[in-house]
From TrEMBL:
Highest rank taxon of the organism: Bacteria
Protein name: Glycosyltransferase
Transmembrane is among the record's keywords: no
Top-tier EC class: transferase
Keyword Endoplasmic reticulum listed: no
Domain Glycosyl transferase family residue range list: 351-470
Gene Ontology terms, MF aspect: glycosyltransferase activity
Length: 537
């Protein structure tokens, strides 16, 4: 391979950064096209933190558009013989993110233009309109998207490909949506650690080209490799790439965590590499299209086991896709940490001070506008009842500027503290009496586990599988006006009625204990990883 031919000096650029990105991109295509001559054209785009890649069969000529100020140069990798077919890959390397972008890359949220006036005048009316639109999409979802499993045939008359002997230890490919903060991502990172503990080599891919802020939480080990397919490989090339990776690295198991291109690659994977076992984990049914559980159900005949985190999802696979027998419930609990987690709830009836928290990413799913409106109503209630109210709102995201403006507009800046996403959440929950979770949708929110374990009572919308951890009397309707009104009523009753408060504490304890009797995700997945680690190389 020749050195990168520089057409412009890299005076203002990080040569180490560019070298790493070039090496990453080249390694992907050397795996994808092992028998080809590769010609790389590299650019850097100072205007964006997103990468692009285009692939052409043959020795494509350079277009003048590629040779502007961002042009870096070329790398040519000869094929194994003179007649090797050629492939041209044009790569645009993203610039390194700015410090502010490392915290938040989404543009600040704005209501759709026709509704901006409504939001300025009456934020809750805007929320009600959006809620009604969401429910309309939900009613149309089954008519717009497939809700039956794709067939997968085959005959014993035809031989199947066999696994090549690589001499390498067995490996797992873990496919994630992205490496950003979220419940599915937490489980994904946990499974990477568990697979490594089981003795597997681990390859990690993500489908969405984000900054992948959690990549620093991947185990620092030569047995764990993060492949930047999200940046440098178009989705339509994933099936061929995965096949080549499976063959080269002795991958025996694929675990899908909300990774769309890996689902789409399943027909190729199951026919080209039939010795590979495929499992997936799902978390939440989305209103608009069913989300990843629906996608998983569609591909169920290509998947060996579905791991789910809630009872609701067990019912979903059975009722929507008639899938039984290979759906396994594994809770996102740590048996050691949660065994004796409950130490008593702090809230006492009639207490003179009350601290209420909200913890979540500031995206529409968590409905931060409704959080602020709830604090506004609670502030009035506290004043009427001579209660000293304080609140903490933890999170970052595109809704943050709107939340800041509303807090100022409602005069809550002395009562509600806005805290960054890296706040010590366990410590906050240990000094919080109540936690608000007025989400538009949830699977089974991890933060509820955390709150109950820290003695904080959660109040949640009745969505997803929240009923499995939050008692019925602490669940509120999803309609925005009802969410705020019912939350206020529950807080008032908890504060006034000692018997009601005592009953909720008992029911929270019982629900948490019941969840603790179920299998954990690790108990479901670890035997599969261990069995895979013992398979032939």
């Amino acid at each position: 391979m020749n050195h990168l031919q520089q057409s412009t000096p890299l005076v203002q650029k990080s040569t180490d950064y560019i070298s790493r990105e070039v090496t990453e991109a080249i390694s992907i295509y050397k795996c994808l096209y092992p028998g080809c001559e590769l010609r790389f054209i590299f650019r850097i785009d100072e205007a964006t933190i997103s990468a692009t890649a285009t692939v052409s069969e043959g020795r494509a000529p350079l277009h003048v558009d590629l040779l502007g100020a961002g042009y870096l140069g070329q790398v040519n990798i000869p094929g194994p013989h003179d007649a090797s077919p050629a492939v041209t890959i044009s790569i645009s390397i993203p610039r390194p993110p700015l410090p502010s972008e490392r915290r938040q890359t989404d543009t600040p949220w704005q209501p759709q233009r026709p509704l901006r006036f409504i939001f300025r005048m009456a934020p809750m009316l805007y929320e009600q309109i959006r809620y009604l639109a969401e429910m309309a999409r939900w009613r149309r979802a089954d008519k717009s998207h497939r809700t039956s499993s794709l067939p997968f045939g085959g005959s014993a008359l035809f031989s199947k490909p066999r696994a090549p002997a690589t001499g390498k230890r067995p490996a797992i490919l873990v496919g994630m949506h992205w490496l950003e903060v979220g419940g599915a991502e937490k489980l994904g990172l946990d499974t990477i650690r568990w697979a490594r503990e089981a003795g597997l080599r681990v390859f990690v891919v993500a489908s969405v080209p984000e900054l992948q802020r959690l990549k620093g939480q991947l185990p620092d080990s030569p047995d764990v490799t993060f492949l930047r397919l999200d940046r440098y490989l178009p989705h339509h090339l994933w099936p061929r790439y995965v096949e080549e990776l499976v063959r080269a690295e002795n991958i025996r198991l694929i675990h899908i965590h909300h990774c769309r291109p890996l689902y789409d690659a399943l027909p190729h994977i199951r026919t080209a590499t039939p010795w590979v076992k495929v499992i997936d984990s799902t978390h939440i049914v989305e209103y608009a299209d069913g989300g990843y559980p629906r996608i998983s159900g569609v591909w169920s005949n290509f998947i060996d086991m579905h791991h789910v985190i809630s009872g609701q999802l067990e019912d979903y696979y059975r009722d929507k896709f008639l899938v039984v027998g290979k759906v396994r419930l594994g809770r996102m609990l740590d048996r050691r940490e949660d065994a004796g987690a409950l130490s008593g709830f702090r809230l006492q009836a009639g207490q003179k001070s009350l601290h209420i928290s909200f913890i979540g990413r500031l995206y529409y799913q968590k409905r931060p506008i409704i959080v602020v409106e709830t604090f506004r109503r609670l502030s009035r209630w506290a004043a009427d009842n001579n209660v000293e109210l304080s609140g903490s709102l933890v999170g970052e995201g595109p809704f943050l500027p709107a939340v800041q403006r509303l807090i100022q507009r409602y005069g809550l800046q002395d009562k509600v503290a806005l805290l960054p996403a890296d706040t010590d959440v366990p410590a906050l929950l240990e000094r919080s009496d109540l936690m608000l979770l007025p989400s538009n949708n949830e699977g089974l929110a991890l933060v509820c586990y955390e709150a109950i374990g820290r003695g904080c009572i959660p109040l949640s919308t009745d969505v997803g599988s929240q009923y499995e951890v939050v008692p019925a009397d602490l669940l509120v309707p999803l309609s925005p006006y009802d969410t705020v009104r019912e939350t206020l009523g529950i807080v008032d009753r908890l504060w006034r009625d000692p018997a009601f408060l005592a009953r909720q504490k008992q029911e929270l304890t019982a629900a948490f204990s019941k969840l603790g009797r179920d299998m954990t995700a690790k108990e479901i997945l670890m035997p599969i990883y261990e069995e895979t680690a013992l398979s032939a190389g």
